[in-house]
Write a structure and sequence with these properties.
The chain contains three helices and six strands, in the order E-E-H-H-E-E-E-E-H. The protein has about 120 residues and is an alpha+beta fold. The strands form two sheets. Strands 1-2-4-3 form a four-stranded antiparallel beta sheet. Strands 5-6 form a two-stranded antiparallel ribbon.
Length: about 120
């Protein structure tokens, strides 16, 4: 059975992406998750499915953001039907292929802003 999330929210930070999904489990799964062992089994199932598709997911995120993905993690609450995906991003690369770190970004923003 396939379930489309009821809602998806994406928060983009300087070095991370957080995806919050609501309604990712089917009603029968939410009912099954009321049992502690059933909840644990369903959550492990969702995590293993995500782990199997992780390379494709991380490649897609890296392509869209033009940033490498260092790691990603899915956490599901099978009983509520909510899930969170956390993506840790690697350093951005300049067009010349050099890493662009926060230090160089900060230096550029502060150029010409010296105090007298």
């Amino acid at each position: 059975m396939s379930v489309s999330p009821a809602s998806v929210a994406v928060s983009l930070g300087p070095d991370s992406v957080v995806v919050t999904l609501q309604g990712v489990t089917a009603p029968a799964e939410r009912e099954y998750a009321r049992d502690r062992d059933g909840k644990r089994l369903l959550e492990r199932f969702y995590e293993e499915v995500f782990d199997a598709s992780r390379p494709v997911f991380e490649t897609a995120v890296a392509d869209v953001l033009s940033r490498p993905v260092e790691r990603s993690k899915l956490s599901v609450d099978a009983e509520s039907g909510s899930a969170v995906i956390i993506v840790a991003l690697g350093p951005a690369k300049s067009e010349a292929g050099e890493q662009v770190g926060q230090d160089s970004d900060t230096e550029r923003r502060n150029e010409g802003c010296s105090r007298s």
